[in-house]
Design goal:
There is one protein chain. The chain is elongated. The longest helix has 19 residues. The chain has 20 helices and 17 strands. It has 2 domains: 268 residues, Ribokinase (UDP-N-acetylmuramoyl-L-alanine:D-glutamate ligase, 3-Layer(aba) Sandwich); 219 residues, TIM Barrel (Alpha-Beta Barrel). The model has no long low-confidence stretch (mean pLDDT 93). The chain has 507 residues and is α/β, with parallel strands linked by helices. Helix content is 41%, strand content 18%. The structure holds adenosine-5'-diphosphate and (4-amino-2-methylpyrimidin-5-yl)methyl dihydrogen phosphate (MP5). (4-amino-2-methylpyrimidin-5-yl)methyl dihydrogen phosphate binds next to strand 1, strand 2 and helix 8.
């Protein structure tokens, strides 16, 4: 809410904008749908002019319906005359007439750059634009292009069937296609036979450059070409020079392919890929309760590196024992660990927690929480503000805020937190100079808080009962440090504490 208010107060911002002129892919792996996702992933607005509608899936193209030229012209006029995109990217242009209409529109409405992906045949081998388009493409569109991005087969078609089998052949092709009048040529080597790298060759009229990435072993390569061209267009729209636009776009395709390599969508061979780098992770994380379940605050275990050191345990051993004992949520609080070690430990702890459906939060360190994809963070009053944490972490992560007063609890709610930690309830050694609010202070905060509350500060087996007995419905549990981790057996202490708090609950 705060973020929205701030935006309303600030001046309007013009966002980078790519217009894609391409075909629709019903399977959403390639074409218009890939372009939209790639631009969204790169933070660029994407408008769409559709040239053809294809019936397509992971097995191939079952049908193509080409739109009338005049309707393509109408779409182009609607977008170009009003929305003024920075860059136009083209994909499937299925007829010479549609290419001519596009060239006329581009002459009427100037854009900053034109990226031409000369789509002819899909990964599955189906024809999307036949040889009849070649002359118009060569003679009318390529001379307007800032960059043209043929794959091996398309480069060969543009060069009247030249055989292209090696990286040296790609160098030759890039130079020859450049002579057709475009400013830059990128010959893509995703389909180059017998090549362990995915090599693309750029020719800018003076020099040849090779962009290399390790070849990712996967069948989910449907849409890589559309995505690369859209990502180049997006980078150009954001103001990158052409060379860095190509470099970043290729890195993006490589990451998206890496994330896609194991996902399963469809029964055919060419699966689509994961533009937002999230599909597989989201599918696997289903075991973690979403949205945040306030009942998970019941037995909230907070680790402490000094206590672990004292008892000779690793963080992950401590977490494992707490979870086996019945902890319902875990927070890693590593005030003096080095960041690299902290991150590694956090990754191990996440595996342990998620195997038992227990959420894992990171104290204070948003960077570590993001890097290990933790379930959320817990922040104090002098840490990063909760509304900033919410903007950085997005809508799904759990955010907890330490609060001592009703005013702080109200602010945590406004700022988008999910729960508050209230204390210290009792005096404690784990926090120097911490003001104790006592049971009365805790009750006052709970009664005013719109968020669920977990009590913290000096709570253990001997004094957890009066906390749980306060009888306010939004007090969901107790958070504990020493009572679990400054003990010989974390497992036994956690079991014991769990029985105390569940007994109080029952009464
Ligand atoms: N298996 C792969 N591993 C890594 N990069 C790849 C792989 N396959 C394709 N690429 C890259 O994806 C982009 C699109 O290339 P390509 O698949 O040849 O285009 P198209 O989809 O038009 O046939 C290029 O940058 C290429 O190097
Ligand atoms: C509508 C449309 N546009 C482009 C492609 C090429 O993509 P790919 O070469 O990855 O199959 C496609 N299959 N469908």
């Amino acid at each position: 809410m705060r973020a929205m208010q701030q935006q309303q107060e600030s001046a309007q911002v013009r966002v980078p904008h790519v217009l894609t002129v391409a075909g629709s892919d019903s399977g959403a792996g390639a074409g218009i749908q890939a372009d939209l996702k790639a631009c969204a992933a790169r933070g660029v607005y994407c408008s769409t002019v559709i040239t053809a509608v294809t019936a397509q899936n992971t097995a191939g193209v079952q049908g193509v319906n080409i739109l009338p030229e005049e309707f393509v012209r109408e779409q182009l006029k609607s977008v170009l005359s009003d929305m003024h995109p920075d860059v136009v990217k083209t994909g499937m242009l299925p007829s010479p007439g549609i290419i001519k209409v596009l060239c006329q529109s581009l002459k009427e409405f100037q854009v900053r750059a034109l990226v031409v992906d000369p789509v002819m045949v899909s990964t599955s081998g189906d024809v999307l634009a036949g040889p009849s388009v070649l002359d118009t493409l060569r003679e009318e569109l390529l001379p307007l292009a800032d960059i043209v991005t043929p794959n091996i087969r398309e480069a060969s078609a543009l060069l009247c069937g030249a055989r292209l089998e090696t990286v040296a052949d790609m160098h030759f092709a890039a130079k020859k296609i450049y002579d057709l009048g475009c400013r830059n040529v990128l010959v893509k080597g995703g389909d180059l036979p017998n090549c362990s790298d995915a090599v693309d060759v750029l020719f800018d009229g003076k020099e040849l450059f090779e962009f290399r990435a390790a070849r990712i072993i996967t069948d989910n390569t449907h849409g890589t070409g559309c995505t690369l061209a859209s990502a180049i267009a997006a980078e150009l729209a954001r103001g990158s020079p052409l060379f860095s636009a190509v470099k970043r776009a290729k890195q993006y395709v490589e990451s998206a392919l890496y994330y896609s390599k194991d996902i399963l969508i469809g029964e055919g061979h060419q699966g689509p890929f994961d533009h937002l780098l999230k599909l597989k992770n989201n599918a696997l994380n289903q075991c973690v309760p979403r949205p945040f379940d306030p009942n998970s605050l019941l037995l909230y275990a907070v680790t402490d590196s000094n206590m672990n050191k004292k008892w000779g345990r690793s963080i992950s051993d401590a977490v494992q024992a707490a979870i086996e004992g019945g902890a319902t949520i875990v927070q890693l609080r590593e005030k003096d660990a080095n960041t690299g070690d902290f991150l590694e430990a956090a990754k191990t702890c996440i595996e342990i927690c998620h195997s038992r459906g227990v959420p894992l939060l990171i104290n204070d360190r948003i960077d570590v929480a993001l890097a290990c994809d933790a379930d959320g963070v817990h922040i104090g009053q002098s840490d990063i503000p909760a509304h900033v944490a919410r903007m950085l972490l997005g809508p799904d992560k759990i955010i907890g805020v330490s609060c001592k007063t009703p005013a702080q609890a109200e602010k945590a709610w406004v700022d988008g937190a999910d729960y508050i930690g209230c204390g210290g309830v009792y005096p404690t050694n784990t926090k120097q100079n911490n003001i104790t609010v006592g049971l009365d202070g805790l009750k006052t905060v709970c009664l005013s808080s719109k968020l669920p509350v977990v009590a913290i500060g000096g709570i253990g087996i001997s004094n957890a009962k009066p906390v749980m007995d306060l009888g306010v419905p939004n007090l969901k549990g107790v958070a504990v440090v020493s009572a679990l981790f400054d003990r010989e057996s974390v497992l036994a202490e956690t079991q014991h504490l769990l029985s105390v708090i569940t007994d109080s609950r029952r009464q």
